[in-house]
């Protein structure tokens, strides 16, 4: 019904008419969307944007050996790591900036600009013929990935108040990440195997163009307007550069075995991150990362446990693919088919996680996700070098399907429901940063363990196992943090809550009803 559609007052989105009465809010006479068709098209565009955002990751996983062979680095494990990690690495650095830009200029503009940017750099990647140029193109495309995540979350959060509707759309949003990464890139993988890896990026550019067109047509100009302000340029530089150099050091160490360049890069990265914390805490007037966001109950512990969980998943997803491709010598297309249980399981796991958040304490959902990831790595670490798919690998993919979706959906809902409306973009960007940094850093740490265990490449199977054992340790650490420190109740709210500023300006009668 039309009364279930969100409305706007200037730059503030208020709840649907169905919840306005319960929350004592007012709505304008006109409606934000012209009908259900526009609302559903709008939501569909945001979900497709999340799907297109994750398809490059899945495509490079399944086709990494084809890409490496065409680039002339098929025997260089360090360069293969860069093929997969370059995209996620830069995405991690620009998530925080994207969240702040969404708050300033509005998530609609940032979402559309980011989708256009990704379209361009996917197309340019198709012309890459050398590893440095390829990595640079994927890194530049990752900028848009970092921007799309907080912008998409901000658009959905402004249209759906806390309640069942938000749980459903956030669940779908979370489900699109693994679903698209594992199953949405099957045509790209097929083209890479039959024709050339260049067609991966041409097809992805075409998908970006269609998604952008749908978003432009479905998004009302009044939705997702920015609140103004300015970008903390110094903080943006310190944070982005610090994260970039920190993750670069771990990935580059697989090439130079922790030579002087990797160590110096790591030291400088840590120094910049320390300077970023000081600047944001004591100097910045409009910080990218307002430190009062950490006042939410156990918010920091939640992000730390999620970070360890995404690192665990980052190791599993890369080395499970390499196990199929390099140890069991499967084709890229068959490897893609082996991800089918993960694709379907992750989709339903995300929806299940969205509803469990409302009925089950969050720490239980987190613990279930981490236990699932731990089991998936245990199964791969103990899988024989030769064997059938329907034993260790099959059940490993099923358990892995639960982990990232439980963690992402729960973290995202908790973040969006506990921070002020003016910090929705920041909350979304923090979760996105944790996700992307975890994936990239997990890949770098896993590659380091592999290179020190595989006896100079003569025992590749042992190298993969070493990476899986690392992931097991990360998951267990996350589980201990959840059990010891994370205490978040189930989320049973319906409708928007007034911010502290609104409560202070409310009349006595209104304040009693908040």
Your description of this structure?
The protein has helices spanning 17-23, 36-71, 77-105, 107-125, 131-159, 164-183, 186-194, 198-218, 233-256, 260-282, 299-327, 332-338, 340-356, 362-381, 392-418, 424-453, 460-485, 500-505, 508-513; strands spanning 7-9, 12-14. The protein has two domains: 32-231 and 288-491, MFS general substrate transporter like domains (Growth Hormone, Chain: A, Up-down Bundle), CATH 1.20.1250; 232-287. The chain contains 19 helices and two strands. It has a two-stranded antiparallel ribbon. With 514 residues, it is mostly helical. Helix 3 (77-105) runs antiparallel to helix 9, helix 5 packs antiparallel against helix 16 and helix 15 (392-418) packs antiparallel against helix 16. Helices cover 75% and strands 1% of the residues. The radius of gyration is 22 Å and the shape is globular. It holds the Pfam family MFS_1. InterPro entries: MFS, MFS_dom, MFS_trans_sf.
Q: How would you briefly describe this protein structure?
A:
The chain has helices spanning 17-23, 36-71, 77-105, 107-125, 131-159, 164-183, 186-194, 198-218, 233-256, 260-282, 299-327, 332-338, 340-356, 362-381, 392-418, 424-453, 460-485, 500-505, 508-513; strands at 7-9, 12-14.
């Amino acid at each position: 019904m039309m009364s279930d559609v969100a409305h706007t007052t200037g730059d503030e989105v208020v709840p649907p008419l169905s919840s306005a009465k319960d929350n004592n809010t007012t709505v304008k006479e006109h409606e934000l969307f012209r009908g259900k068709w526009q609302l559903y098209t709008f939501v569909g565009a945001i979900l497709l944007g999340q799907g297109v955002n994750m398809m490059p990751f899945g495509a490079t996983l399944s086709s990494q050996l084809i890409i490496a062979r065409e680039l002339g680095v098929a025997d260089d494990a360090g360069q293969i790591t860069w093929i997969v990690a370059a995209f996620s690495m830069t995405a991690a650095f620009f998530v925080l900036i994207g969240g702040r830009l969404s708050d300033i200029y509005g998530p609609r503009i940032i979402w559309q600009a980011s989708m256009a940017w990704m379209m361009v750099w996917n197309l340019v990647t198709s012309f890459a013929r050398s590893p440095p140029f390829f990595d640079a193109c994927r890194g530049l495309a990752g900028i848009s990935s970092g921007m799309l995540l907080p912008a998409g979350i901000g658009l959905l959060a402004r249209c759906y108040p806390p309640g069942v509707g938000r749980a459903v759309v956030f669940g779908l949003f979370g489900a699109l990440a693994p679903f698209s990464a594992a199953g949405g890139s099957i045509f790209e993988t097929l083209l890479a195997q039959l024709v050339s890896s260049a067609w991966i990026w041409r097809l992805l550019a075409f998908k970006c163009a269609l998604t952008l067109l749908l978003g432009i047509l479905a998004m009302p100009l009044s939705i997702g307007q920015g609140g103004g302000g300015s970008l903390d340029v110094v903080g943006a530089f310190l944070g982005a550069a610090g994260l970039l150099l920190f993750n670069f050091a771990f990935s580059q160490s697989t090439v130079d075995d922790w030579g002087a360049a990797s160590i110096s890069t790591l030291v400088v990265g840590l120094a910049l991150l320390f300077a970023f914390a000081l600047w944001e805490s004591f100097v910045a007037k409009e910080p990218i990362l307002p430190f009062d966001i950490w006042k939410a109950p156990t918010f920091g512990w939640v992000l730390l446990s999620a970070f360890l969980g995404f690192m665990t998943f980052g190791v599993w997803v890369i080395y499970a693919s390499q196990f199929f491709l390099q140890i069991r010598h499967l084709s890229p297309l068959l490897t893609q088919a082996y991800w089918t249980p993960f694709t379907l399981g992750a989709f339903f796991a995300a929806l299940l996680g969205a509803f469990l958040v409302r009925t089950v304490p969050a720490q239980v959902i987190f613990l279930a996700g981490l236990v699932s990831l731990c089991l998936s790595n245990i199964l791969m670490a103990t899988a024989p070098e030769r064997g059938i798919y329907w034993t260790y690998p099959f059940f490993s993919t099923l358990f892995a399907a639960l982990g990232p979706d439980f963690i992402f959906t729960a973290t995202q809902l908790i973040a969006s429901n506990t921070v002020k409306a003016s910090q929705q973009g920041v909350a979304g960007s923090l979760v996105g940063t944790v996700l992307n940094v975890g994936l990239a850093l997990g890949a770098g740490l896993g590659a380091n363990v592999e290179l020190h265990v595989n006896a100079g490449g003569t025992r590749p199977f042992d190298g993969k196992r070493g990476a899986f054992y690392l992931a097991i340790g990360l998951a267990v650490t996350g589980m201990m943090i959840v059990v010891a420190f994370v205490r978040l109740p189930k989320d049973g709210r319906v409708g928007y809550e007034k911010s502290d500023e609104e409560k202070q300006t409310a009349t006595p009668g209104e304040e009693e009803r908040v």
